[in-house]
Amino acid sequence: MFNRNLKDTEGxxxxxxxxxxxxxxxxxxxxxxxxxDLANVCDCGTDNFTLxxxxxxxxxxxxxxxxxxxxxxxxxxxxxxxxxxxxxxxTKYLIEFKLPEIEVVFTVFSETAYYINxxxxxx
Length: 123
Prior knowledge:
This protein is α/β, with parallel strands linked by helices.
């Protein structure tokens, strides 16, 4: 079960959301309302979120190619209903950019396999 107090006691933030296939300007334009909506669904503070937009180069058949919109959510499991709502909210905001397709994937961390300063986050 997800411990909502982990951030308060351990000083780290999750969910960590990695965006690909959009620009920094696009991410900035949606970041505040997006995080507010996601925090509401997760029942946590907006300061629990980290948004990342890495500088990546994609290559296909020896040629540079544009990145497709792939959003990776790294978090502790919150259940299918919350995951569905989270993906719908991300899609709702990104669809505004007239993208042909938006993919959202979740990487789930186990609290006992997530370590901070050598100590796992499980109870």
